[in-house]
C-alpha cells in the first residue's frame, strides 16, 4: 500500500469540453489540471474517483479520460472494470485474452483466500474475542496466542486477503482484515502498511470519521514514532498531505484542519515548499473560504510569493493580485478563471459558491481599506456582478460584517468611514504574530 504508483495521465488532444469556452480557452485552463501531478503521490485506487470526475470536465475529451482510466485500472485487480472501460472504448473489439486470463487468476486467488480466512474471521468475530478486544490489542494478542494457538501466519493470510479485496475494489470488505493487522501485528512495517491501506479503504468507502482517525494516527506515527530517515519522512509526509485532501474536503472542520496542518506545522509547510508547491492551490482556497483562519492570510501570501517561481495558478494569483500588487482588475480576471478551476477540480468543486462569495468579499474589503468613496457601478465590475445585485450584496455585507459604511443610492456610492486601529490593538496583533512565529520555530526544533 505504501508503494505509490506514479500516474502519468495521457490526454491525447488536451481540452475539448463545454461550448461556453473556446478551444484556446480550454487549452489554457487545462494546463492547470492537477490530476497527473497529484497522481504521483496517490495510490492508484485514489486516482480513479478523480478520473471519474474529469469525465464531466470542461477540459478534456471523454475518450482521453477513459484511456487514462483504463491504464490505471490495468495496474489493479479490478478486471471487470477494466473490461467495461475497454468495451466502451472499443465496442466492436474482442476482450483481450490477457484480461480474461487475469480475471480467472484473481477469482481463484480470492476464492482460496476467502476459504482460508473464514475460520479466522469466525474466531475474531466471536463474543469472547470481542470482549477481549475491549481490553486492548496487547491483551487480545496474548489471549489469542494462549487460548487459540493464534499464529503470525494467520495475520499474513488476513493481510493478503484484505489487500486483494482492496485491489479488486471491495474497500469496505477489505477494512476488517487490515484493521486486525494494524492492531495485532508486532511488525512495525506491517502495522504501518496496514494503516495506510485502512486509510485508503476508508477514504474510498467514504467513511470520513474513520478516515480522519487514520489520518491522525498516520501523522502521529510519521512525526513522532517514525524510525525512518529524514528523506523517507519527507516522502511519507508528501503522501499524507495528498491523501489527506480527501478527508479535509469531506469533514465539517476539514478546511480548518488543513490550514492547521499545512501552514502552521513547520514540517508540513516545509514539505509543501520542498516537494509539492501545487498544494498551495488547496491551502489558498481553504484560507479564503474559512472565516476563522483569516490570521493565516499573511503567512500564506508570503508563502505564495516565495514559491511563485515554481507554482502559480489563478487561485494563488488571485491573492497575489489582491494583497501584493493591489491590482483589482487583475484580481477580477483571476476570479473569473478561479470559477473554471474550481468547477473542474475534484477537491474544490463543493466549495465553489462559497469561494466566489468569500473572494468577492476579499476584493471589497481590500478596496475599502484604500478608498473612502466607492462607485457601486465600478464595484460591480470589480466583483463581476450587475449593478443592482452588487448594491444588494454590499448592503448585506455591511450589515452582516458590521462595517462602518453607508450607501448613497442616489449618487451610487458606498461611503466608508476610515478606521485606524488603536495602539493597543496594534500591539496585541504584533504580539500574537510574534508568539505564533516563536511557537512554530520551537515546533520545528523539536519535531523537524
What is the overall shape? globular
Structural class: mainly alpha
Give a count of the beta strands, DSSP E runs of length 2 or more: 3
Q: Give the neighbour order of strands across the main sheet.
A: 1-3-2
Radius of gyration: 26 Å
* Strand content range: under 5%
Sketch the topology as an H/E string, one letter per element: HHHHHHHHHHHHHHHHHHHHEHHEEH
Calculate the mean pLDDT score and round it. 84
SSE arrangement:
Layout: H1 23-30, H2 35-39, H3 44-54, H4 62-73, H5 79-89, H6 97-124, H7 127-133, H8 137-148, H9 152-167, H10 171-184, H11 188-204, H12 208-225, H13 230-248, H14 254-262, H15 266-274, H16 280-289, H17 297-307, H18 314-323, H19 328-343, H20 352-370, E1 373-375, H21 376-382, H22 387-401, E2 405-408, E3 413-416, H23 423-447
Antiparallel strand pairs: 1-3, 2-3
Helix pairs in contact: 3-4, 4-5, 5-6, 6-9, 9-10, 10-11, 11-12, 12-13, 13-14, 13-15, 14-16, 16-17, 18-19, 19-20, 21-22
